[in-house]
Design a protein that fits this description.
Blueprint lengths: L4 E4 L1 H9 L2 H19 L6 E7 L2 E5 L6 E5 L6 E6 L5 H9 L4 E3 L3 E5 L6 H12 L1 H4 L8
Parallel strand pairs: 1-2
Antiparallel strand pairs: 2-3, 3-4, 4-5, 5-7, 6-7
């Protein structure tokens, strides 16, 4: 944990500041959950924050890309995206059922007025950040 580093691109920071105020707080909270999870996971030594597909994204050496975003076309919600060809969202549905709202096999959807179940979200984040180490486990180490 003492060797843990976060590498942030300027574009990532610019994107976070571009969200409307009410949304920015939500995005910063998800970012904080990612940071907490990464620092609590001993095998994660570096977290890269960058833009993928114009969305704030998090990458680790043995993980699957994790993205967060809010879109004008769905102004009352924001999402945490996962690689749709992975088993991540499928496994979240298996473990948590209807505790979350999902977008097919690619995202967890949060409403702006929703209280985030941070303990459950952090387990989803951890599975994504460690995906290539846990992908053969039926519950992805959750």
């Amino acid at each position: 944990m003492s060797n843990f580093k976060i590498k942030t691109s300027p574009e990532f920071e610019t994107k976070l500041t571009s969200y409307p105020d009410t949304v920015r707080d939500k995005m910063l909270y998800l970012r904080e959950l990612v940071h907490q999870t990464a620092t609590e996971t001993p095998e994660i030594e570096e977290l890269e924050e960058t833009l993928k597909w114009g969305e704030p994204s998090f990458l680790t050496k043995h993980g699957s890309t994790l993205r967060i975003d809010w879109k004008k076309k769905t102004p009352d919600q924001y999402q945490m995206y996962f690689k749709c060809t992975s088993r991540l969202v499928e496994t979240f549905k298996l473990v948590y059922g209807d505790k979350f709202e999902y977008e097919k096999s690619r995202a967890i959807i949060f409403q702006l007025d929703q209280k985030i179940p941070s303990d459950k979200v952090k387990k989803c984040i951890k599975a994504a950040l460690r995906y290539h180490k846990v992908k053969d486990d039926i519950k992805l180490g959750m």
